[in-house]
Automatic annotation (TrEMBL):
Keywords: Endoplasmic reticulum, Lipid biosynthesis, Lipid metabolism, Membrane, Mitochondrion, Phospholipid biosynthesis, Phospholipid metabolism, Transmembrane, Transmembrane helix. PANTHER family: PROTEIN SERAC1. This is Protein SERAC1. It comes from Amazona collaria (yellow-billed parrot). GO terms for cellular component: endoplasmic reticulum; membrane; mitochondrion. Belongs to the SERAC1 family. SUPFAM superfamilies: alpha/beta-Hydrolases, ARM repeat. It is a single-pass membrane protein. One of its GO terms (biological process) is phospholipid biosynthetic process.
Length: 571
């Protein structure tokens, strides 16, 4: 019998896969397929087809094991990777992309893209896409500036060139002739507007219907030199992946191979954006949905390791989901002794150190925009959206969608992020739909949180000509009635629920500009009133950035997490 005939025979023998009853398992001698390296040619060929058939089983356990076996076997021949790429279904391709160490030969490259219309640039195509999208249900400020851009771009398209392109830069809105603006800048602005559109489900439908997935693929391939452009594109794909109806379109546009490749990136921001997009696509093993700004740092791949508890990181003013939690920067030229024999620098210690020390934890970091100053205020309707109260409601909804509250939980916060954590817990305690978040909270870590206000707010108020304080900074005013009320409400809740609390306080001033040096959160403001308070000889920015893995700051944080989750983590 030929190899092909033998494989067909094997394939037919498992035709009952997926039907209920004992026949499903008795027809499959899978104990013979565990050791692929010992197979001869025919057996090895048949094993591939058997696994492919098994990936389509109606039995979830069977198909997940088949995907794992496909991914873990390092003895496939080159043409067999191609066979899998061309024959596996959408669900299997996504599962393979979320398998650690996956061989990228399992995936087909993105399909050839249609040519751009004559005389049309990528910027033209992007503006056409923006023009076609609804202007409703958007963040008011994005709507404001997108409408300015579209008004001008409509004239540009009509005239084939010329007119003005208006957009919000780092300062106030400004206009330049199109020829003076680099195409990458225009593309980035359009993509940032598309990010906002992609947060609205009905707008995602329009993006897909107008060929947006293919256009984004073209830009992604052309802009491999721009991490920021690629990151915004993957962020859009991650948002669109929240809608299961769009999964087939995302797969057809070639995004699985792209995301699988980016997952291997050494840059934590890039890989985490791809991990979020693939998790939202993987409905076979992921029940949670990760909305915009919610990132899983661990586990980013499929795993058989049971997840026992969640750790949630919340940054503060001018922070971010990744950079806030990096290892403290060391000038290796000045500190040769510190750099000798040092472990690899961690771009995000919760993703590297904490995940390694506590693999049974799911580690999540959230991101939201903050400003020190309204000097660069983008539009008059933005202010109310940046209050702690507004952000609390917004983030609580996102966290529940991500399954926060379903497991025991520890919060880790820096600066204003700690006030936001307190507000979320107080708000959740008053909402029956959010009560699980409160009831499953085991502990909270505060890194230099201004429970009683910050000198940053006082300075900003007294120097308006230099720094127009933002909504966030105004809310940090020393002895603010709102801060006192929040602290009183939180203390009452924490004592009632017996939350474990650990606080760290900075003792060194922070340079916030070449001329300004402030002790942003004094010891008395970092004192919550419950739990331990530990002063550390670092400034406000470095209070959450340990120098190395065996440093006191990280080891004490780790011990607190292990202690409050001792029951869940066991030994």
């Amino acid at each position: 019998m030929s190899v092909a005939a033998y494989c067909i025979f094997c394939y037919r023998q498992i035709g009952t896969i997926g039907t209920p009853g004992p026949a499903t398992k008795t027809h499959l001698p899978w104990h013979d397929i565990k050791h692929f390296s010992t197979f001869d040619g025919e057996d090895h060929e048949c094993a591939l087809w058997l696994l492919l058939k098994r990936t389509q089983s109606e039995d979830k356990e069977v198909r997940l094991q088949a995907v794992q076996d496909l991914a873990n076997n390092s003895h496939w021949h080159g043409y067999q990777y191609g066979t899998v790429a061309q024959t596996c279904d959408q669900r299997t391709a996504i599962g393979l992309a979320r398998s650690k160490g996956i061989n990228l030969r399992f995936f087909l490259p993105p399909p050839p893209l249609p040519k751009v219309k004559n005389d049309y640039t990528i910027e033209d195509e992007l503006r056409l896409l923006l023009v076609s999208l609804p202007q409703t249900y958007l963040d008011p400020c994005v709507q404001h500036f997108t409408s300015l851009a579209l008004r001008e771009s409509s004239q540009i398209l009509a005239a084939q060139r010329g007119g003005l392109w208006c957009f919000g830069g780092n300062g106030l809105p400004y206009c330049e002739t199109l020829s003076k603006i680099p195409s990458e800048t225009v593309e980035l602005f359009c993509l940032q507007a598309l990010v906002q559109h992609s947060k609205v489900s009905s707008h995602c439908d329009k993006i897909e219907a107008k060929g947006g997935l293919q256009l984004l693929q073209r830009i992604y391939q052309l802009r491999k030199d721009s991490a920021k452009i690629q990151r915004n594109i993957i962020r859009i794909i991650g948002n669109m992946a929240l809608d299961e109806r769009l999964h087939a379109s995302i797969v057809r546009a070639g995004w699985i191979s792209v995301l699988a490749e980016v997952m291997k990136s050494p840059h934590v921001i890039q890989s985490s954006h791809a991990a979020r997009a693939l998790a939202n696509l993987d409905r076979d093993t992921v029940k949670e949905k990760y909305l915009d700004g919610v990132y899983v740092l661990h586990p980013q791949y499929r795993t058989s390791q049971p997840i026992r508890a969640d750790i949630l990181f919340v940054h503060g003013l001018l922070g971010a989901a990744f950079k806030t939690w990096r290892q403290q920067d060391i000038d290796r030229r000045l500190d040769k002794k510190a750099s000798e024999g040092q472990e690899e620098y961690s771009q995000c210690w919760p993703k590297t150190w904490l995940a390694s020390d506590c693999p049974a934890l799911r580690v999540i970091s959230v991101e939201y925009d903050t400003d020190l100053s309204d000097w660069k205020a983008k539009c008059p309707v933005e202010a109310h959206r940046k209050s702690i109260a507004y952000r609390s409601n917004e983030l609580l909804d996102k966290l529940r969608a991500a399954g926060i509250g379903d497991r025991p939980l520890v919060w880790v916060s820096h600066s204003m992020g700690g006030l936001l954590v307190k507000k979320m817990l107080v708000d959740a305690s008053k909402n029956p739909e959010m009560e699980k978040i409160v009831n499953n909270t085991r502990g909270i870590i505060f890194y230099s949180v201004p429970h009683h206000g910050s000198q940053l707010a006082e300075y900003s108020m007294n120097a308006r000509y230099l720094l127009f304080p933002s909504v966030e900074v105004k809310e940090l005013s020393k002895d603010s009635p709102a801060l006192k009320e929040l602290n009183d409400d939180f203390l009452s809740l924490a004592k009632d629920k017996k939350f474990s609390v650990l606080s760290f306080a900075e003792t060194l001033p922070t340079h916030i500009s070449s001329m300004i040096k402030l002790h942003i959160v004094p010891l008395e403001s970092a004192k919550l009133g419950i739990g331990d308070l530990i002063p550390v000889d670092v400034n406000h920015l470095n209070i959450c950035k340990p120098k190395k893995k065996d440093a006191f700051l990280y080891q004490h944080t780790l011990k607190f997490i292990q202690d409050v989750l001792a029951q869940e983590l066991g030994d």
